[in-house]
Structure formats: C-alpha cells, structure tokens
Amino acid sequence: MARPRQLASGEEALTALEDGDGDKRFAIPGAQALSKGLSLLTLIADAPHPLPFGELGRYSGLPKSTLHRILQTLIDYRLVRVDEATQTYRLGTRLFEMAHRVWSDFDLRSAAEPELLRLRELAQETTRLGVLEGREILIIDQRDHVQAMRLANGVGSRLPAVATAIGKAVMSHRPPDELQRYLSSTPLKPLTPHSILDLDELQRELDLIKARGYAVSVEESALGVSGVAAPILDHRGEAIGAVSISGPSFRLPLDRLHALGRDVIEAARRISGNVGETFMSISTSVTPSHAADRQVRCVVPQSAFLAEGPHWLAGSRSLLWVDILAPSINLSNLVTGDTRSTPLGELVGVVVPRRAGGFIAATQSGFRALDLTTGEMTALASPAGMSGRRFNDGKCDAAGRLWAGTLAIDASPERGALYRLDTDGTLAEIETGFHICNGLGWSPDSRRFYLADSGRRQIYVYDYDLATGTLSNKTVFARFSGSDGMPDGLAVDVEGYLWCAMWDGWALRRFAPDGRLDRTVDLPVPRPTSCAFGGADMKTLYITTARIRLSATQLAAAPLSGSILALQVDVAGCPVGEYGG
C-alpha cells in the first residue's frame, strides 16, 4: 500500500502520495500521485451523492489498482471514509477538523467588507454585517450610501434578533435545539404593529426563510424601515452572521426586497467562500440560448415565487396549483381568467382532488385533508422525522394511491424520501436517500413509474405493480449536465412519452419511452417547475414557473417568471388520478 512520505527535511514538511508509477516528470517525488489524490478528493466532494468504487473509477479515469491505493491512503488519513452499508465513499472527519481550524481563524469583518461595498453600490442603500450576541444582533460593520437615508443604528448597535431581516436570517440557520431554547425563553415584544408575536407564526416564518434562502422584514422593528438579509454559513451549515440591505420602506417595497434576495445570498456565499449553503440554485443565464417557442403563451399572469403541482380539473375547466414559498393553493379558471388564492399556514408541495370530495394536500408536516374555501386542514398522516424537511411534488396512481416525495427545507442532500399514502390512510416510506425528490408519473399502462431527483440531475424509472403499489428494478432513465438545467416536474402522454420541466434550463423536454430525447421546447422563463395536461382534449400542456432567487436583471429578461404558461401539443396526456381514500 502506498504511504505518504515526508519531504524537504529541515524545511516545512510536504506530504505527497506516491502511487508507485515511477513517473519522473515532476520535480517533487510523488507530485503526480498527490495531484491524483487531490483530484479524487475533489471528485468525492463535488459529487451530488456518494459514489461507489466503480463510478469513482469511471469518472476519474484511474486504473483500479491506482484508485484503490489512493483511496486507501485517503482513508488512512481520515480524508475519506467508506459507508459500509452502501459501499460508497464520502468525505472523512479529518476534513471537518481542518475546517474547524480554518473557521476559528476566520476574520468575518475583513471577508465581508468588499461584499458590503458591492451591495451598497448595487442597491444604493445601506448594507450591514451582523452577528448573534446573546439575544440580539450586533452590527459589526455598516456601509451607508451617500444618497441613502442614514440609519440611526450603526456599528456597535444592537437589533432584536427576531424582528429584523438580518436577525431572522441568522436565527433560521441556528441549530434546532438552540433555536427552541431561544424561542421558549425570549418573550416576543410588539415593537411595531407589524412585529410577529406568535411563536408558531415565527417558527413558520423561519422555516420559510430557510426554504427561500433569505429573509425580509417590512417595518417589523421600526416604522418606515425595511430590509432583506441572507445568512453567512460555516462548514456545518450554521449561521455565523448575516449580510443585509436596509433602507426606507418607500424605496424598498416588498417586490424589490424579494428581487434583492438573490443578491444578498450571493454576497453571503462569497463572504464564506461558498462553504456553507450551496445547494439552492442562484445561478442561471440571463438570456436563453434560443428564442422561446412561439406556440408558448401566457394564460395566467402571476408573480408566484415557486408555482408547482399543476392539476387539471376538467369539471370546472380550471387549473389547481400551489405556490410553495408564498404558501397558498390557487385555482385558476382558464375560461374567465380569474385565480382564487387560499393562503396556508405552512409550506405546501402539492394538492390533489379526492374522489369522496374535497382535496388532499402534502405539506411541510404531512398529508392533510383540505377545505379549499377556508384553507382549514385536518391531519391524515405524517412521516416520522419531518423536522427540517417538507413535501414537494406528488401524484395519484390509477388505483387512487397518493405518492409524494420530500426534501430538506434548505435543499441539503440525501434527506429526501418517497412516500405512498394508501386509500385506507396507511402511510408507507418507500425509498430514502434522495436529494430533491421531485416530479413523478406513470406510463399509460401503469407498468412503469418515473421519478426525478433534481439535485442529482437524474430521472429514474422503475417497474410498477399497480395491484400492490410496489416498485422494483430501479434504473436511470435520463441524466443531465449542468448546462441542461435540472429535471423538475413531469407529465406523461398517451404515447408513453415523458415531458419534463427543466429548472434553470429555459426549456421543456420530451423523452421517448427508451430515454431518447425527442423534442425540446424553448421557454421564455429560466425556471419552469412542472407541467400538466389539460383542456377539453387533454392536448394543452400547462407549465408552472418560478421567480424565486432571480435578480432584478434576470426578471427584466424573463418577466413571465412566476406565471402559468401553456403549449398546444398534438398528443393527449394521460389522465391523472384522484386520491381514492
């Protein structure tokens, strides 16, 4: 087995991995093997999911013997570890120890200074850097714009942690036990008529902030002052501070605060060197590579943060859909053009009709019976361990079972799972270990089941037994590169072809049953989220879209982001079932 060897006696030690290949082209002995080892370490770190030995060999291009020796050396030095249950390779604990030392010497104020200046010029408003100290946010740096209203609270001032954007951004990413201690021991005080005074409402707000990636505050701590902020995260994903833009409310209305959300997220990531939260997408091309298909039209103009879960209701010729990040259920009548919105008290992923009447919602906490008129919900079933997770997309099979997947609220990997709610109310966990469990559907004969994992940029296909509701023989149906975008919601037509919305891909794609790409429909928005067949002949594809974490420049280039689009196609879609319980 190759071992590290110490070089340059009497000077600073340099450890190099030798793989025994005898290559003498490098001045430092073992430098080639060191380069291979570091490249392999980077491959393991950047992989969307833990890789087995075979995939590491395929992606690295290393011979098996060389790969084995380098892996073993990395394991010996605790830079890599093996998951014995899955026989996959992950980063080792030694890296976390190294990261802790880096962060112990991290100068937050110096790292943040250029970003505070950049944000100040971008927004033409005051920018701040704050850290949690006790029960308050301590402002450790502030940059006032010459044309902005000078804020009274400058460097050294303290702000309430749960009534400001900068404070809520920090609190949303503190450890759950610490957050609960804080909330249970700190009375909520009415600083303005807009202050949050209910603990349950505050917890929902913090969960929403974690899902969006940024916090907004509209006159919660002081009348006339509003702001937007994003947490600065360390290697454990915990907030060590936050960066904010603040100013007078008349210059920072709610829509502008949300448009600046992406900019403060980007600044926070730059400050921390992108070591914390990097799973939420904030990068998309400002313009598409192709002009939008002329057959695509806007049928429901909206400004939804994250429209999802479209479902056609033939009886009323309406489209049912949700806005996950402004939690609501929406019913758009495609005849009159009217949309009725019902706000909900928690994040909601999908809503489906119920054969017995009414609707079923898959929410942050579980499956709920729903009164669409009042928004009142009654608990039906909840999986264990839903803290920090939420339900995402879902559909019913031809037998009336409701299938839905989950993901982490902050989109961190390997926390997604797939569930099945049977018609008798029994809830079953089917599979775990997904990154972002997303769009799903069945072939016309119900013998195949499709499931997209957006984080892994893959669509899987399974054999499906409709009689028992069981899955088997999982394989990869389609893989995507970074430039393709990520597979999101999907629908299947009567020919068995699969249509998939491509998040950050400006497109809708159609795949043949064998996985071959059949057609690409270019869209006028970068973030289509899902699609559903509807219309009198089921030949209209309704496409939900999102505007979350798009900058003002990006929104100007794609003003239909957050609206419902439609595309007339030649092939009808497969009917989507109702919940049979």
Brief overview, please?
This protein has 581 residues and is of the alpha+beta class. It has eleven helices and 35 strands.
Question: How would you describe this protein?
Answer:
By secondary structure, this protein is of the alpha+beta class. 21% of the residues lie in helices and 36% in strands. Helix 5 runs antiparallel to helix 10.
Helical stretch tally? 11
Distance between the termini: 60 Å
The major pleated sheet works out as: 6 strands, antiparallel
Based on helices, strands and strand pairing, what is the structural class?
alpha+beta
Molecular shape: globular
Q: Give the helix level as a range of percent.
A: 10-25%
Radius of gyration: 25 Å
Assembly type of the shown chains?
Answer: single chain
Overall mean pLDDT stands at: 87
Strand order of the largest sheet: 8-7-6-11-10-9
* Tally of DSSP β-strands: 35
The proportion of residues in beta strands is 35-45%
Low-confidence stretches: 1-26
What characteristics describe this protein?
disordered N terminus, 4-stranded antiparallel beta sheet, 6-stranded antiparallel beta sheet, alpha+beta
Topology:
Layout: E1 5-7, E2 14-16, H1 31-46, E3 51-52, H2 53-60, H3 64-76, E4 80-83, E5 88-91, H4 93-104, H5 108-123, E6 126-133, E7 136-143, E8 158-160, H6 165-171, H7 176-185, H8 199-212, E9 215-218, E10 225-233, E11 239-248, H9 254-259, H10 261-272, E12 297-300, E13 307-313, E14 318-323, E15 328-333, E16 339-343, E17 348-353, E18 359-363, E19 367-370, E20 377-381, E21 389-396, E22 402-408, E23 416-421, E24 427-434, E25 437-442, E26 448-453, E27 458-465, E28 470-479, E29 486-492, E30 498-503, E31 507-511, E32 517-522, E33 528-534, E34 540-545, H11 552-557, E35 564-568
Antiparallel strand pairs: 1-2, 3-5, 4-5, 6-7, 6-11, 7-8, 9-10, 10-11, 12-35, 13-14, 14-15, 15-16, 17-18, 18-19, 19-20, 21-22, 22-23, 23-24, 25-26, 26-27, 27-28, 29-30, 30-31, 31-32, 33-34, 34-35
Helix pairs in contact: 5-10
